[in-house]
Structure formats: structure tokens, C-alpha cells
Amino acid sequence: MRRPLIVANWKMNKTIDEALLYIGAFIAEILEEISVKGSVPARTWPEVVIAPPAPALAAVSAALTGTGILSGAQNIHWERKGAFTGEISGEMVKAAGGTYVILGHSERRTGWGESDEIVAKKTRAALDQGLLPIVCVGETLDEREAGTTQEKVSRQVRGGLALVSPEEAERLVIAYEPVWAIGTGREAQPKDAEEVSLLIRAVVDEIVGRGSGSKVRVLYGGSVTPENVGGFMARPSIDGTLVGGKSLDPAAFSSIIRETLRKKPLLKTED
Ligand code: PEP
After folding, report:
1. pLDDT band at 270 (very low <50, low <70, confident <90, very high)
2. Which domains does the chain possess?
3. Whose CA is nearest to atom 4 of ligand 1?
4. Above pLDDT 70, what percent of the chain?
5. Helices 149-160 and 116-128: crossing angle, nearest 10°?
6. Which of 6, 53, 78, 195 is at 20 to 30 A from 133, Cα to Cα?
7. By C-alpha distance, which of 88, 78, 80, 81 is closest to 52?
């Protein structure tokens, strides 16, 4: 069974002090509900990840210790170390307590020219350096209107997973984020997001094989709110959400988690 996953992408928001204030409020708001429900162990509940800006990662990771809530980075370089001014490596993220890394976000693809080849190298580096990659894919408005969504998303999935083995593919997370829905207040229709998530699974099956398409976790991202998240979570092939704007407010992000809990069935314990 695929464990639901909800990821907060804070982008370039919050200083260390602001981040710690948030974590305090967030824990007070949601921890009891997501850590233990009666006799059900924490790992049966959705996985929650907070990806703050790099300077706050170590402090956020430390503040989350023992809560079961994980942290992650928003980007890494593909090299482990060296003369790459302004960059951070997977090893550094891991050492700062991070578990996940968001890769190929559309803001990085458009603002920093990240190609599918670069995303593939970063995905490889993340796996080599002990991080779990969340690979973002999605079409622009022009592409959706031109009817080339499937072509674009297929190409990005093939490109981003080019250097990944079948065993590794099953640990990946792919976030379908239509570019026109990110930060615009205009979310996709759940049925359209589900259609693309099924396409993503089919492409993963085709390039990786071994039934990986049904094992990989696929998220939806793009103007997710407490009000609209239920529609996405009701779709069986969408395993969770990548949340930008609404993750900046601990109450709103907690509501998104609560709505996810309502829609996704309780997982069976492993023992
Ligand atoms: C994102 O940053 O990946 C995102 C989906 O942002 P928002 O939720 O604000 O659209």
C-alpha cells in the first residue's frame, strides 16, 4: 500500500526564528492527530514533510525530532562538494536532518533553466546521498490548451528518471504540478489530475518495469487549499499533495492534513 504524503514547500519564506515559531504552532495544532490514534502506530498515518529554505533546515529538523514529521530541501546540486558557489549538496541536506528533496520544481525549471537532464542528475545524486527525491513535472497553460499535456509530462518523467534503477524508482515520489496552477489560486480539476497521475504511473511502468508504476507515489500540487484538497484525495491514484502558499500558515496546513486523513483510508500496520 502507498502511504499518503503531504509536503510543505515554503519556497523563499521564513527566517529561522519564523520557522521555529511555525513549528511550535504546527505541532500544537496537529501532532496528536497524526502521531498516534488510539493504539495505531504513527507510521500508519500520512507522512508529513516540511521543506523550509536551506538556512532554516537544521533548526526545523531539530525542532521536529521525535514528532514523526520529516523535513526536506527544495533543491540540491548534483555534486557532493566543490567550487559551486551558492549551491548545497544532498550530503549537506542529510547532515542537516533532511529526508526528502524537491527536484525540478517549475520555478527552478523556468527561473534557473533546469532541464530534464539536470533533474536526472540531481535525482541520481539525491539517491546516492541518501535522500528521497520528489520529482516535479507539469505542463504550462499553453501546453494544456494545445493538448500536449501528456507528451510534456511523459517527457519530463522519462527524463527525470533516466538514471534511476527499478529498485530505486519505487522509492521515488513524483509530483504532478501543472505550472498554470502553481500560486495562481486556480487548481486543476481532480479528474484531470487523476488522469495525469495515471499517465505518470504508465510511463514509470514502461521505462522502469516490474510494476513500479503502481508503487511510486504520485502527488498533486497547484493551489491546494483546505477546501479543495478533499477532491484530490478522493482520487485513488493521487497519494498526497505538494503545498506551497497554504503550507505557510500552520492552521491551514494542518487543515489540509486533516482533510487528507478524512479521505485516505487508514493503512494496515506492517506487523
Ligand atoms: C508549489 O510550490 O509547489 C505549489 C504548488 O505552490 P501553491 O500551493 O502555492 O500553488
Report:
1. very low
2. 5-263 (3.20.20.70)
3. 244
4. 93
5. 40
6. 195
7. 88
Supply the pLDDT for residue 167: 85
Task: Give the model's pLDDT for residue 33.
Answer: 74
- Cα 207 to Cα 70, 134, 159, 177, 202, distances in angstroms: 30, 18, 10, 21, 9
Rounded to two decimals, what is the model's pTM?
Answer: 0.94
Residue 268 has φ and ψ, to the nearest 5°, of -75, 145
- Which residues lie with the beta carbon below 6 Å from any ligand 1 atom? 9, 11, 105, 177, 182-183, 221-224, 242-245
Please choose, from the candidates 42, 46, 49, the residue with its C-alpha nearest in 3D space to the C-alpha of residue 23.
49
Angle at 221 between CA 200 and CA 250, to 5 degrees: 145
Q: Per-residue pLDDT tens for 185-225?
A: 999 999 999 999 999 999 999 988 878 899 999 999 999 99
Q: How many other CB atoms are there within 10 angstroms of residue 12's CB atom?
A: 8
Q: Which atom of ligand 1 is nearest to the CA of 185?
A: 10
Catalytic one among 139, 143, 168, 177?
Answer: 177
Provide mean pLDDT across the span 6-11. Answer: 98
Q: How far, in Å, CA of 128 to CA of 144, rounded?
A: 34
Residues in contact with 112: Cβ distance below 8 Å, sequence separation at least 6, in sequence order? none
Task: Output the nine-digit C-alpha cell for 46.
Answer: 500520512
| Residue 177 appears among annotated catalytic residues | yes
CA distances from 29 to 24, 57, 265 (A): 9, 21, 21
pLDDT in tens, 10-23: 999 999 999 999 99
